Amino acid sequence: MTPFALAIALFFALAATVIVWRILRARRRAHELREPFPPSWRRMLARVPLWQRLPPPVRAQIETAARRLMQRVSFIGCNGLTVTDEMRVIIATQAALLVAHRDSHAYDALYSVLVYPGEFVVEDRDEDEFGLVTVGRRALSGQTIDVSRIVLSWEDIEDGLAGDEGYNVVLHEFAHYLDHLAEGALTDGGVLAPGAQRWHATLEAAYEALCDAVDRGEDSLIDPYGAEDLAEFFATATEVFFERAREFRAAHPRLHAELREFYGVDPAEWG
């Protein structure tokens, strides 16, 4: 056999090996998705108030979406943090709430979730309307870098579990992820998808109302941080839509209806 023929044979052998490996991996993942959600994982979720409110049929779909996420994504501890199964389950289950009833493949492009013990510091660059650039550093509780990476603070995740203020950094950052996945079309009125006029009109009206309330110094159900821009408003509104659902429905009925249709669930009807 000539060197060229040998190279061709090795190439096809390697290609066949890769194909077989991918087929076996896909079968293994499909088999795992059909297995019951481990009871030990459910016990880990006992301290997640949002999980406790889920009706059984909704839980079943969330469990499947959460398991798919944990199959495909690497959870990486940073600054010395060791990511436990409990951390993975708590993060993945809450993230699954956003996609289980609309698109269970939405997170397939996500490669890693980086988890810090607490807030992490990032370089910040801001340019004002006059072109003046300010460079600095700021501490964050979460960041969605692109469609491949999400960064979270575990301390802030636990703060959300312990409080009732509607604060949930997991929901916040994964909502940003969905906006990134849509190339900003969820929050940029200039990137209108067919039939999205009502969505953007409702989102922008609620955003302007929050900005006015913040300017007047009034209390608001949606975190004032949502007044930063429409992207932050969408993410903070998502937190409250799930965490304080009935109050949200009463205060923002039109926005509640749009988010209910978008996410395919109505948390205000849960226990």
Element layout with pairings:
Elements: H1 3-34, H2 39-44, H3 49-52, H4 56-72, E1 74-77, H5 85-96, E2 112-116, E3 120-127, E4 133-140, E5 142-144, E6 149-153, H6 154-162, H7 169-181, H8 197-215, H9 230-243, H10 245-251, H11 253-263
Parallel strand pairs: 1-2, 2-6
Antiparallel strand pairs: 3-4, 5-6
Helix pairs in contact: 1-4, 4-5, 7-9, 9-10, 10-11
List keywords for this structure.
single chain; 271 residues; alpha/beta; Collagenase (Catalytic Domain); four-stranded mixed beta sheet; 6 strands; globular
Describe this structure as you would to a colleague:
Helix 7 crosses helix 9 (230-243). This protein is globular. Strand 3 (120-127) and strand 4 form a beta hairpin. The chain is of the alpha/beta class. Mean pLDDT is 84; it is low at 18-33. It is 53% helix and 12% strand. It contains 11 helices and 6 strands. It has a domain at 182-271: 3-Layer(aba) Sandwich (Collagenase (Catalytic Domain)), CATH 3.40.390.10. The strands form 2 sheets. It has a 4-stranded mixed β-sheet with strand order 1-2-6-5. Strands 3-4 form a two-stranded antiparallel ribbon. The longest helix is centred in the first third of the chain and has 32 residues, at 3-34.
In short:
The protein is of the alpha/beta class. It contains 11 helices and 6 strands.
SS content category: alpha/beta
Helix content: 40-55%
User: What's the helix count?
Assistant: 11
Mean pLDDT rating: 84
Radius of gyration: 21 Å
Distance between the termini: 71 Å
- In the predicted model, the low-confidence regions spanning at least 5 consecutive residues are 18-33
Supply the CATH superfamily name of the domain at 182-271.
Collagenase (Catalytic Domain)
Anisotropy-based shape: globular
**Strand segment count:** 6
Return the CATH topology of the domain at 182-271. Answer: Collagenase (Catalytic Domain)
| CATH architecture classification name of the domain at 182-271 | 3-Layer(aba) Sandwich
